[in-house]
From TrEMBL:
<keyword id="KW-0677">Repeat</keyword>
<dbReference type="InterPro" id="IPR052004">
    <property type="entry name" value="Dynein_assembly_factor_4"/>
</dbReference>
<dbReference type="GO" id="GO:0036159">
    <property type="term" value="P:inner dynein arm assembly"/>
</dbReference>
<dbReference type="InterPro" id="IPR019734">
    <property type="entry name" value="TPR_rpt"/>
</dbReference>
<dbReference type="GO" id="GO:0007507">
    <property type="term" value="P:heart development"/>
</dbReference>
<dbReference type="InterPro" id="IPR007052">
    <property type="entry name" value="CS_dom"/>
</dbReference>
<dbReference type="InterPro" id="IPR037894">
    <property type="entry name" value="CS_DYX1C1"/>
</dbReference>
<dbReference type="GO" id="GO:0005634">
    <property type="term" value="C:nucleus"/>
</dbReference>
<dbReference type="GO" id="GO:0043005">
    <property type="term" value="C:neuron projection"/>
</dbReference>
<keyword id="KW-0966">Cell projection</keyword>
<dbReference type="GO" id="GO:0030331">
    <property type="term" value="F:nuclear estrogen receptor binding"/>
</dbReference>
<keyword id="KW-0802">TPR repeat</keyword>
<dbReference type="GO" id="GO:0007399">
    <property type="term" value="P:nervous system development"/>
</dbReference>
<comment type="function">
    <text>Involved in neuronal migration during development of the cerebral neocortex. May regulate the stability and proteasomal degradation of the estrogen receptors that play an important role in neuronal differentiation, survival and plasticity. Axonemal dynein assembly factor required for ciliary motility.</text>
</comment>
<feature type="domain" description="CS">
    <location>
        <begin position="3"/>
        <end position="87"/>
    </location>
</feature>
<dbReference type="InterPro" id="IPR008978">
    <property type="entry name" value="HSP20-like_chaperone"/>
</dbReference>
<dbReference type="InterPro" id="IPR011990">
    <property type="entry name" value="TPR-like_helical_dom_sf"/>
</dbReference>
Length: 421
């Protein structure tokens, strides 16, 4: 028997409803999401969530996003109005069954209409492709016929010119009767040979015109083969490699910069083995974490974020149980775009801000907002939205956090492309 899920949160505007459903281990592959006009269901065995909506929605434009153990819905209302509640009040089992059956029938009808439209579009595409192919073949056939006709006219013209020349020569040169008879015989034979050459030429052209581009390719290949040079003589090239400590070639490296890098690495290793609080030359106030925290706050106010981080680092080494040190250092990392470090410090601050009481509510809200901002700048918008919603649970009247959460929802649903600041 499925386990009914009742743990969810929802918010609304006059035009849309935003529903967040936490499901541990949920994934796109295993979850079955069904959305209709008045009915919404998520089946992720053994969990089952269904709600009979208070008013109709536009199921075609509504969207769902699955990720980070959460299903987030954006449901667009058909009528612009504020709902009194998410689900329809006072629905008995018989009415629920009718709504389920009606929703399934509507979904099947919509799917069938979409399939028919897709098949029609596919047929239109095939028809268009066939028309284009026929036109291309017709143009190619016409081109070949024109080439044959031009070649025939050219051959006919050459024959007529040759005949005119022969005629003029006969008129200008007087010859004896016997030679004339002999020349007449030769002229008949030449005419037969010319006629044979003309027929052969037309036949050859017809053969080449039928083959079209293939004949041109054959002639091009023959020409290319005839122009291939002879193979080169066999030889060997000896290559010597210069031994190098660094993986790059000597021509691509600068020895001075490499030595400086090695020196800095050695200095960094020596610094990591040094315990700063044990330095005997520290001033008395520098051993006070609260004084260091105030010093870091002043440096943050002057936008000297690196110096502020150094002050917070020293304070944390002196006392690593003060949550505000991690929270303030997270703000510095956020300004410097050290996003992973900002997430790490915000999570550490939330870990120390326990139990959740009224005195630490403001600090917890700031930690959620800073971690959510870092997630958004890493384009992890689902995780960022969860932190902003957690901040709104602590301070629901904060208009700035409400505006940023609305902006993240728009990004998740694809209606806005700008990332969070």
């Amino acid at each position: 028997m499925p386990v009914q899920v009742g743990d969810y949160s929802w918010q609304q505007t006059e035009a849309a409803v935003f529903l967040s459903l936490p499901l541990r281990g949920v994934s796109v592959r295993d979850a079955d999401v069904f959305c209709a006009e008045n009915y919404l269901k998520v089946n992720f065995p053994p969990f089952l969530f269904e709600v009979f909506l208070y008013a109709p929605i536009d199921d075609a434009s509504s969207k769902a996003k699955i990720g980070n153990d959460t299903v987030i819905f954006t449901l667009y209302k058909k009528e612009v109005a504020m709902w009194e509640m998410l689900s329809m009040p006072g629905v008995d089992k018989e009415t629920k069954q009718k709504i389920r059956e009606k929703s399934i029938l509507q979904a099947q009808q919509t799917a069938q209409e979409a399939e028919e439209a897709k098949a029609k579009a596919r047929r239109e595409d095939q028809k268009y492709a066939l028309t284009v192919m026929m036109k291309i073949e017709e143009d190619e056939r016409k081109k070949i016929e024109d080439m044959k006709e031009n070649e025939r006219r050219k051959a006919t013209k050459e024959l007529e010119v040759w005949r005119e020349c022969q005629k003029k020569d006969e008129e200008q040169k007087p010859i004896p009767r016997e030679e004339k008879l002999q020349q007449g015989k030769q002229t008949k034979e030449e005419r037969k040979q010319l006629k044979h050459k003309t027929v052969t030429r037309n036949s050859t052209f017809s053969h080449h015109a039928t083959k079209g581009r293939n004949s041109e390719d054959i002639f091009a290949e023959a020409l290319q083969e005839s122009s291939i040079p002879a193979p080169r003589s066999v030889g060997s090239i000896k290559i010597n490699f210069t031994p190098r400590v660094f993986p790059t070639a000597l021509r691509e490296s600068q020895v001075a910069e490499e030595e400086e890098w090695l020196h800095k690495q050695a200095e960094a290793r020596r610094a990591m083995n040094t315990d700063i609080p044990e330095f005997c030359d520290l001033k008395e106030e520098e051993k006070n974490p609260d004084w260091l925290k105030e010093k870091g706050n002043k440096l943050f106010a002057t936008e000297n974020y690196l110096a502020a981080i150094n002050a917070y680092n020293l304070a944390i080494r002196l006392n690593n149980k003060i949550p505000l040190l991690y929270l303030n250092r997270a703000a510095c990392h956020l300004k410097l775009k050290n996003l992973h470090k900002a997430i790490e410090d915000s999570s550490k601050a939330l870990e120390l801000l326990t139990p959740p009481v009224k005195d630490n509510a403001n600090a917890r809200m700031k930690a959620h907002v800073r971690r959510g901002t870092a997630f958004c700048q890493l384009e992890l918008y689902v995780e960022g939205l969860q932190d902003y919603e957690a901040a709104l649970k602590i301070d629901p009247a904060n208009e700035i956090v409400q505006h940023d959460a609305e902006k993240i929802r728009s990004i998740i649903q694809g209606t806005e492309v700008n990332s969070c600041d």
